[in-house]
Design the sequence.
C-alpha cells in the first residue's frame, strides 16, 4: 500500500540553515580563545629553541656586539665544529643512543611481564606489590647514589655503561609496571577465558592476545623511556667517569664546567644535544599520537 503526499503535506527542508563544511561544528568564541592560548604557549616553548638556533650560528664577536636576540650577520659554524671535535660527538651520540635504546626495550619488556602477572595473573597482595614497585620511581636519585656506587664498585661495573643501563631499567620499569598493571587490571575477562578454552597457555595469551591489544600503550612507553633516559644527567655523571663512556648531556656539562666553551659554542652544544631527541620525537610522533588516542578510546 503506497501513500502519496499532497502539496500541503510535502516536507520541505528548513530555511536559512547553513551546514558547516566537513560536518564540523562552528567554532565558538571559547574555542578561538583556547586556540589562541595554545598558540601563545607554543610560541613561548619555541622561544628558547629559537635562541639556541640563532646563537649557534653566530660568532663570538657578533654575539658581543648585537646580543643574543639578534639574527647572525654571517653564518658561523666554527662553534659546532669545535664542540664536535672536542668531545668526539659521534662517540657520545652512540653512547647515548645505545644506553637509551637498551633501557627502553628492556624496561618495556619487564614492565609488560610484571604487569601481566599483577594485572591479569592476580597474584596475592598485588596492590602492595605495585606500591612497593612504585617507590623505586619516587625515591630521589641523590638517595640512591651512594648505595648504587658501593654496589657496582663491588661487582666491578663502576665506570661501565651497563651499570647505568641496569639502574634506569629498574627505575623506568617501576613506572611502566605501575601504569600497565592498572591497564591490564581492566582487561576484558571474556577474551582471556575464550583464549583459555581454545587451549592457550599463559605465555600464548600474553603474546597472542595481550601484547597485540596493548601494543599502542607499549609504544608510548618505549618513546617516553628513550627520551627520559637520553636526558638523564646525574646518574651518568656519577657512574661514567671515563671520557669514552660518557653520554651527550654529560659531555656538554663537563666542557662547560671546564670553561672551555664560549657562549656560541655552548649554544651549538645545546643544539647538537637537542636535535637527536627532537628528530626521534618527530619520527615517532604518529606512533605516540595513535597510542594516546587508543588509550583514550579504550
Sequence:
Amino acid at each position: 500500500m503506497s501513500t502519496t503526499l499532497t502539496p500541503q503535506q510535502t516536507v520541505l527542508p528548513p530555511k536559512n540553515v547553513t551546514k558547516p563544511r566537513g560536518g564540523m561544528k562552528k567554532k565558538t568564541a571559547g574555542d578561538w580563545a583556547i586556540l589562541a592560548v595554545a598558540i601563545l604557549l607554543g610560541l613561548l616553548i619555541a622561544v628558547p629553541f629559537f635562541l639556541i638556533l640563532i646563537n649557534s650560528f653566530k660568532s663570538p664577536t657578533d654575539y658581543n656586539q648585537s646580543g643574543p636576540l639578534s639574527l647572525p650577520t654571517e653564518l658561523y659554524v666554527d662553534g659546532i665544529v669545535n664542540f664536535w671535535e672536542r668531545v668526539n660527538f659521534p662517540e657520545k651520540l652512540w653512547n647515548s643512543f645505545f644506553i637509551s635504546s637498551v633501557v627502553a626495550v628492556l624496561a618495556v619488556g619487564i614492565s609488560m611481564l610484571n604487569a601481566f602477572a599483577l594485572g591479569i595473573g592476580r597474584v596475592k597482595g598485588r596492590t602492595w606489590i605495585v606500591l612497593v614497585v612504585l617507590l623505586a620511581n619516587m625515591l630521589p636519585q641523590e638517595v640512591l647514589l651512594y648505595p648504587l656506587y658501593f654496589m657496582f664498585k663491588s661487582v666491578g661495573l663502576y665506570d661501565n655503561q651497563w651499570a647505568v643501563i641496569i639502574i634506569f631499567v629498574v627505575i623506568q620499569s617501576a613506572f611502566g609496571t605501575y601504569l600497565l598493571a592498572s591497564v591490564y587490571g581492566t582487561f576484558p575477562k571474556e577474551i582471556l577465558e575464550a583464549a583459555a578454552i581454545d587451549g592457550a597457555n599463559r605465555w600464548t595469551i600474553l603474546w597472542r592476545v595481550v601484547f597485540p591489544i596493548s601494543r599502542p600503550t607499549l609504544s608510548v612507553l618505549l618513546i617516553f623511556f628513550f627520551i627520559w633516559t637520553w636526558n638523564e644527567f646525574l646518574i651518568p655523571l656519577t657512574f661514567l667517569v671515563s671520557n669514552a663512556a660518557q653520554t651527550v648531556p654529560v659531555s656538554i656539562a663537563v666542557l662547560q664546567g671546564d670553561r672551555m666553551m664560549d657562549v656560541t659554542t655552548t649554544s651549538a652544544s645545546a643544539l647538537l644535544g637537542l636535535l637527536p631527541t627532537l628528530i626521534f620525537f618527530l619520527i615517532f610522533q604518529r606512533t605516540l599520537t595513535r597510542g594516546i588516542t587508543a588509550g583514550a578510546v579504550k
